[in-house]
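Table S4 entry, Syntaxin-131 isoform X2.
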Amino acid sequence: MNNLMTESFERVIGRYAGEGDIESGNGFSPDARDMGMDGFFKKVGEIEKQIERITTQLHKLQTANEESQHVTKASDMKAIKQRMEKDVEEVKKIALKVKTSLEEIDRDNLINRQKPGCEKGTGVDRSRMAMTLALKTKLKERMSQFQTLRQSIQDEYREVVERRVFTVTGTRPDEQMIDQLIETGKGEQIFENAIQGHGRGQIVDTLAEIQERRDTVLELEKKLLDLQQVCCYEENRYSFTLCSWTCQCWSMHKEIC
């Protein structure tokens, strides 16, 4: 699977290999194939597919989170929680696989430098390094979106609790009251007066839903924080090379033109 970036670097490989005809539309020259680019592009394509799978899981989680804002039963909230936990675990599996594949490409890039014409600083080497870094950056950006989702879940949880209290009591809760419900999930005292007017059954159902929602938020927060650790070392290790990568791409662009 080749995206626009892959196709762009295929043309670069043809240029630097010295044999490729860029204008004829050849992807890259026979010499470039001898330089290990066939296997490299295959691995890049597989990683791109896996990152797309992560994107799909992100969209599923975002949809489930939106759905959770409208449920009012503890049983419905529990079902959504189970779905979201399963999706987060799937993301973790995929991310670990991508991380392993990127580490393998790192090793391959160093080994490939031993081939004639592929030494450090050559067109082939710069293309491989730039594409590898682009994949790492793409993965990092995608994973950061899960932390944005985590913050959204927390913020929306607070809003839902506030709405539930207002619906049952008819009174807008203050910050301290909301904090108490979020911290403990228990609100018998808060709803004490409402119990007399609405009946205990309805209040118990509301409290059960709030408790289940609290459990969901806490569990998802833990799993999403764990997910953040999967690729955090990549950020520390490679963030300093982003500027270098940009310069490499600009340099290659000027040589093509």
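The chain has one domain: 34-256.
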